[in-house]
Amino acid sequence: MSTDTQAVWKPAGSLSKDMIDQRVSVRGWAATQRDHGGLVFVDLRDRSGIVQLVFDPERSGKEVHSAAHRIRSETVLRAEGTVRKRSEETINPKIPTGEVEIVVEKLEILATSKPLPFEIEDEVSAGEEVRLRFRYLDLRRPVMFRRLAQRHQICRAVRSALDDAGFIEVETPMLMRSTPEGARDYLVPSRVQPGRFFALPQSPQLIKQILMVGGIERYYQIVKCFRDEDLRADRQPEFTQIDIEMSFIEEEDLFAVCERMLRAAFAAGGIEITVPFPRIPYAEAIEKYGTDKPDLRFALEIVPITRLAAESGFKVFREVVDAGGLVAGLRIPGGSQAMSRKDIDDLTAFANRHGAKGMAYFHAKEGRLTSNIAKYFEDGLLERIREAFGAEEGDLVVFVADRPKIAYPALAALRNRIAKDRGLVRDEQAFCWIVDFPLLEWDEESGRFAAMHHPFTSPHPDDLERLESDPGSIRARAYDCVLNGNEIGGGSIRIHTPDLQCRMFRILGIDDEEAREKFGFLLDALSYGAPPHGGIAFGLDRIVMLITGGNSLRDVIAFPKTQNASCPLTRAPGRVSREQLEELHLISTALDDDAPEATE
Q1: DSSP class of residue 355?
Q2: What gap in Å lies between CA 429 and CA 547, rounded to an integer?
Q3: What are the backbone angles phi and psi of residue 358, rounded to the nearest 5°?
Q4: Region 2-28: what's the mean pLDDT?
Q5: How many whole angstroms separate alpha carbon 339 and alpha carbon 331?
Q6: Dist. CA 573–CA 199, nearest whole Å
Q7: How far is CA 255 from CA 133, 260, 476, 478, in A?
Q8: Under CATH, what is the fold of the domain 126-276+531-593?
Q9: CA pair distance 99, 391, nearest whole angstrom
């Protein structure tokens, strides 16, 4: 065949039988090479997909055919040739280009690769530390590209939805003043102002409030934030959030905007969600689900039986009740029939690991509750407990008894474990808003109240008169957005007057002098006619993880940190030179070993 026709560049994954007999150019990495003696086959991969290259000594030419024998995994190629239909027995239905191949007539080897530490495939056996060390190879895996591409589409959808709602994106500073916001700051020393430090923002909280004072009215930003805290699978020291603030709003105004935005974001990931989301008061969420981030994809609810337990002769329950504790449990449908004694013992050990001292249980059999502790309960009391749980034949009822701060988290963990083990979790996206949080929580270590969200959250107006006399009873105008047991966003209506903000600071043990020192710029701004305003921040990384099915945030961040906040690729954090430390005034030249000793 003539090679005079101009080759047209095509993405590898875009070739189809409609292009048969066309001359094309492709470029990418050699995923595999198969030498069949006369014919050499290479699967060429670029970000769009894979196409098969064929090197035929009769059509490719001796030089090109010889070069094909030298191709190894991850060799970078540019190839030109003619698209032809594969023979029926060689069609590969697993890939979009499986009906065609390219007979190569020109070949250029652009770069070669050393032996790989792991294969470039969706499923790899290499540990995460190795994959992060060679992240540039890990990113070549098709699954990683798909996740990053979906992240891009989700960000586009978020921006489009907020643009349509009248928001403008405003960039806020990365170098800020350190302010107490709940986690440790990353500090940046100032070279030009010795002894002073910037802080990387934990969020743009104060700046976006000042934007509202500045009349912006509707602000958003997809922004990097930083927190120096202990890490786990769902935390990163630097993370990205969708930051939103609005003026002249009530909670429902913000909820409506956010629900439209989330619907667009999930649609970009091919997932349809239903709005509006249910609203659940914080106290109800704790009582029913044991947590303020409930998974609503299954119906198991916690049933409190503290009053009934007080009527029993069971010492463990009575002691907890007498100490003002909680006795509550869960009904496991069909659990008595399906679960062995070992299964129940494993569940008890699981409850222990989540803080509970133990786990009691009853079997529902022959119309009554039975157990080795049933002898401590009168028949009438057992019947009332059975009715409270709605226990039916073959069900298992499990109990935890302890202080509420211990019992509720243990029951929440049990609830999730039982639903997963019993196959009760529905395949759906179950959103909700958690509302009416407490404004404050008591900090045992410091012996004073701390803000449950942050110090700039507005108290509920109906509770305001009790702010000083009974601060622990005050509700906050705060809210969290929860999806399938994951908090994906949180925010509040803000305090917008300097007097109320100073009252809040005093409740938190921040006197007027300290408030002026740390937050003077905010108090000054609020004194110049601040509009009522509120906002929210959504965790973009977590949203992308949930949409794409990743197992951790590291799956959806191009260059994440490990659980000890390090980067195996760049080996950050690293040491810096003495000269840099001296420039930043973090060490003194007087400490040099060869510096003259001080004399009196």
Answers
A1: T
A2: 10
A3: -175, -175
A4: 89
A5: 13
A6: 17
A7: 41, 9, 16, 12
A8: BirA Bifunctional Protein; domain 2 (3.30.930)
A9: 58
pTM assigned to the model: 0.91
What is the CATH code of the structural domain delimited by 8-111? 2.40.50.140
| Rounded average pLDDT over 320-344 | 95
Q: Where are the alpha helices (DSSP H) in 246-403?
A: 251-268, 282-289, 306-309, 315-322, 335-338, 341-353, 379-389
Which residues neighbour 262 within 8 Å (Cβ) at sequence distance 6 or greater?
Answer: 273, 275, 431, 481, 538, 543
What is the reported pLDDT for 590?
53
Is the peptide bond between 276 and the residue preceding it cis, with omega within 30 degrees of 0?
A: yes
> DSSP for 503-572?
HHHHHTT--HHHHHHHHHHHHHHHTTTPPPEEEEEEEHHHHHHHHHT-SSGGGSSSS---TTS-BTTTTB
* Helix orientation angle between 404-421 and 341-353, rounded to the nearest 10 degrees: 140
**In the chain, pLDDT over 70 holds for what percent of residues?**
96
Position 447 confidence tier, pLDDT thresholds 50, 70, 90: confident
Could you read off the pLDDT of 153-199 as tens digits, one per residue? Answer: 999 999 999 999 999 999 999 999 987 666 789 999 999 999 999 99
Flag whether pLDDT at 591 surpasses 80.
no
Q: How confident is the model at residue 597 (pLDDT cuts 50, 70, 90)?
A: very low
DSSP code of residue 410: H
Q: Would you state the pLDDT for residue 181?
A: 60
Q: Which two three-digit tokens encode residue 232?
A: 């786990």
SS3 (DSSP) at 379: helix
Instruction: Show me where the domains of the chain are located.
Output: 8-111, 126-276+531-593, 298-425
Q: What is the CATH number of domain 298-425?
A: 3.30.1360.30
Token representation of residue 140? 């070549």
Please state, in angstroms and rounded to a whole number, the distance separating the CA atoms of residues 382 and 337: 20
Out of 146-160, 422-436, 576-590, least confident range: 576-590
Angle of the 142-164 helix axis to the 251-268 helix axis, nearest 10: 140
How far is 596 from 591, CA to CA, in rounded Å?
9
> Does residue 119 register a pLDDT over 60?
yes
State the residue for tokens 């119309």.
Answer: 367
CATH topology match: 8-111 vs 298-425: no
Q: What is the pLDDT of residues 539-557, one digit of tens each?
A: 999 999 999 998 899 999 9
Q: What pLDDT is recorded for position 53?
A: 97
User: Tokens at residue 515, please?
Assistant: 């408030």
Pair 206, 519: CB distance under 8 Å: yes
Count of C-beta atoms within a 10 Å radius of residue 154: 24
Q: Distance between CA 399 and CA 384 in Å, rounded?
A: 15
Residue with the two structure tokens 């090197």: 55
